[in-house]
Amino acid sequence: xxxxxxxxxxxxxxxxxxxxxxxxxxxxxxxxxxxxxxxxxxxxxxxxxxxxxxxxxxxxxxxxxxxxxxxxxxxxxxxxxxxxxxxxxxxxxxxxxxxxxxxxxxxxxxxxxxxxxxxxxxxxxxxxxxxxxxxxxxxxxxxxxxxxxxxxxxxxxxxxxxxxxxxxxxxxxxxxxxxxxxxxxxxxxxxxxxxxxxxxxxxxxxxxxxxxxxxxxxxxxxxxxxxxxxxxxxxxxxxxxxxxxxxxxxxxxxxxxxxxxxxxxxxxxxxxxxxxxxxxxxxxxxxxxxxxxxxxxxxxxxxxxxxxxxxxxxxxxxxxxxxxxxxxxxxxxxxxxxxxxxxxxxxxxxxxxxxxxxxxxxxxxxxxxxxxxxxxxxxxxxxxxxxxxxxxxxxxxxxxxxxxxxxxxxxxxxxxxxxxxxxxxxxxxxxxxxxxxxxxxxxxxxxxxxxxxxxxxxxxxxxxxxxxxxxxxxxxxxxxxxxxxxxxxxxxxxxxxxxxxxxxxxxxxxx
Length: 511
Known about the structure:
Shape: globular
CATH topology of the largest domain: Nucleotidyltransferase, domain 5
Low-confidence stretches: 33-74, 264-272
Number of strands: 24
Strand order of the largest sheet: 17-16-15-18-19
Number of domains: 4
């Protein structure tokens, strides 16, 4: 019996007969097309019994729970890896996305293996885990990460539970299911319920865009200059006046190939922080990362990140070994306290030997710094710096790979990534960047270029001969700290050059 809604008043259009989220005049369209109402015939797995379908693998693949027979997506097994079509089933019982169509993947890690076990103890093999990119109605794209590749599976499955873990809301109302991205409140898809009480939708995959092929477009150029930041953050940066020097950009949410390669494994959206320091340096997070191979020309194998909890401002120090952490912290302490006129009150770190040593403890005790240590094997207790470490590494990989810069220059990419992230939006600060919160001034970004691009620096050597070259070809490695000049690398001499008089070819990659 259909529910009588004639007395219901919509607070958007003030009409009667429907709720606000069903208002025909106000409801935002889904970014992905609704599924066709017609039925698609697939075969039920004969060996599947009502109850549980479990993953059994060495890499701790989670269990997949299925509902009673007749209410689950009808799975079709085949001996080959034949295409599965574009119909995807959205299921609340499955705890993992999966497909049997290799052509759908834009990135696939074949090292992830395991078994899917059916009720009669028969199994099929997982042949990898990867990322799929879907095309939206309005030119934007949507990434589905951590999808298992099972060649014998002829159906495509989206796990609603897995979607909620990475920042999506699932809304069920009468005959429709909606998937909404929490962070942006973007409606991803709206799926009607079929006659057999299932939710399925047609989703088309899309080729990701190469940054270098699109760099003449202003939006893609700034995407590259700002370390492959997503277009949502780029729009927020400009639209809310959070920085100077960046033009107004209107561009659909898309993904470049370098982003996908560098950031395939995507972390869950963190829950809102329960507590945040109300003043600078009241709490500082510190964490080393490494060893990183290959080591730099200077012999560095680690970097140490220090994050102020109040402003989320980051400082990075390169280390040859972890025992250099104390010297790096002492340098940070002096510089940060002089700049902010505040004192470090509390330092939070893990229980690494470099932090629990007597020398480190003595420095903190004399300065009156309270120590906080995470429990063993519990990095979540220092989640602020752990997440920033991962973000820094993701951006650094994108910077290197997009311009084909050799991996031995990872330290320069790390420094530039920290420089950029300090000037980009971060969720916990709302409409302010870490730079503004730390210094009180909005950042200016108009000077930025694409990391790793070709630069022509003017030769300023005195007494040049008439036929001597007036410029030399170098590589852009960011901004020189403490000066209004560019940091450029000379591959011929293996030296860093600082120059102001420079012409850039931002579409020209490392040669």
